[in-house]
Amino acid sequence: MPDITTTADLLRARRDDDAPALLFGDDEWTWSQFVAECERRAVAMRAVHAQLHADTPWHIGVLMDNSPEYLFLIGGAALAGATIVGVNPTRRGAELVADVARTDCALVIVGPSQSEVAADLDGHVRSVFTDSDDYRRLLDVQPDVTAEGPDNHTLLLLFTSGSTGAPKAVKCSSARLAAIGMLNVHGMRRDDVAYNAMPLFHGNAVMSAWAPILGVGGTYALRDKFSASGFLPDVQRFGATFFNYVGRSLAYILAQPERVEERATELRFGWGTEASARDREEFERRFGVPVTESYGSSEGVCVIVRDASTPRGALGTPNPMLGMTIVNDDGRECPDAVLTADGTLLNGAEAIGEIVARGGGDRFEGYYNNAEATAEKIRDGDYWSGDLAYRTPDGVYWFAGRTNDWIRVDSENFSTAPLERIIARFDGVRGVSAYAVPDPQTGDRVMAALETDQSFDPGAFAAFLDAQPDMGSKWTPHLLRLTERFPLTATRKIDKTSLRRAAWHTPDRVLIRDGARYVPLDARARAALEAAFAEHDRTHLIPN
Q1: Among 324, 454, 306, 299, CA closest to 377
Q2: pTM of the model
Q3: CATH match of 7-184 with 3.40.640.10
Q4: What stretches of 210-298 adopt beta strand conformation (E)?
Q5: CB atoms within 10 A of CB 208
Q6: pLDDT tens across 353-375, in order?
Q7: What whole-number distance in Å separates Cα of residue 236 and Cα of residue 283?
Q8: What's the CATH fold of domain 416-541?
């Protein structure tokens, strides 16, 4: 093997491996069969590449639910030297078109279930559907298994969100994905079956589960979409020993009726991000297996893995080798947090700062076609995460929010500008500002302040939002603040910081989403909302 091991190298090492590689429904592929399917896609991608102008990036968008085809395409791109762009199907309209254009997709491959979403791309980019004759003809080739493998290249572009209103496409090279697989931080074994129902356009599904399974030659069990009711039957059917999750997934699973079969599975551990401490503990009680959390992002520079010594609700202690610290706006290290006996932070103004990896710039592969955003992350060789935290004297990090104006709901990051533009269409709304407020369990909830008058009709507004074709599936505001005048900065801009700080603690009228309607956030509703924070040990996030 070359000095740098790539994902293509790991795949070729499995070419003659007859152990099970992939389970999907009632179908199964051995590793040798899996690699053969990847080689077919690699040849098809080379055929597409031959038709492109020499200056056109070899970028192939994938817009589909989880499927074997998605993984075959990732493997094919690794073997051919192409780049897979994981198109986010929760985006709509002009925002979706912009995502595809910004990443220079020469072709978008669309799964059958995404035809309605893909219609927004008509006239903007060439699309081919996996159930079409065109696609079948594209794959009707004999793979040249003797073809030389590519050197290291950008294998994946994984979208995230920032403060500018446009998502950023994080680069993940073939070598980086291979390194993640070989590092195998979860200690996966060849006899492990990793169950994944998280979307493959997110790093969680590919990096935390598929890459290490490829590295050890284990088995990857895949579901098209997450299903809380389908979790236990799938785990039983596939004989899963590991599962990964993001956000509220655990909460949804635990909302299912408890069954005695939950403690009779082959599961031995789970891993994910952003589940509450209460949900992790309840899952372990019901299923009898530990669940491990970690802090990180698709950029892959700052990582903190929880262990048994991590206090409840904390991020954990970073590995000293990563060079992580917490700094203020001037780049100076923040002092340790001073806490009362009940955990109240006394010196938040001094102790809270941004998580930075000293010298971490070399580990960041950058954002595609966004030099400005990349430069914002890298300063004098250091990597600035955009996340806020404070550190207790024992070295434990505690999450304190985000520096940029983004919102994270169900592990989906999005910026506020597209949502604000939609809300501004509603008659009677003179101004709008959308922002994140804490969620009682994990991540954020969407809150929007509307400058309007007494004629505002909450029922009509709720119906209006539900009818908007370009409304992202996670964008609907959970809370509304109705005001006659926004707080303004000295430059006459809306003071979003003060809106976010106040959240629902305001003399203005506040409404909360209840099913398909908005109802007043009265004293009882506010008490119930804040009791949910206490239930999940997140009372420190309730606005003062």
Answers
A1: 299
A2: 0.79
A3: no
A4: 219-222, 242-246, 269-273, 291-295
A5: 26
A6: 899 999 999 999 999 999 999 99
A7: 16
A8: GMP Synthetase; Chain A, domain 3 (3.30.300)
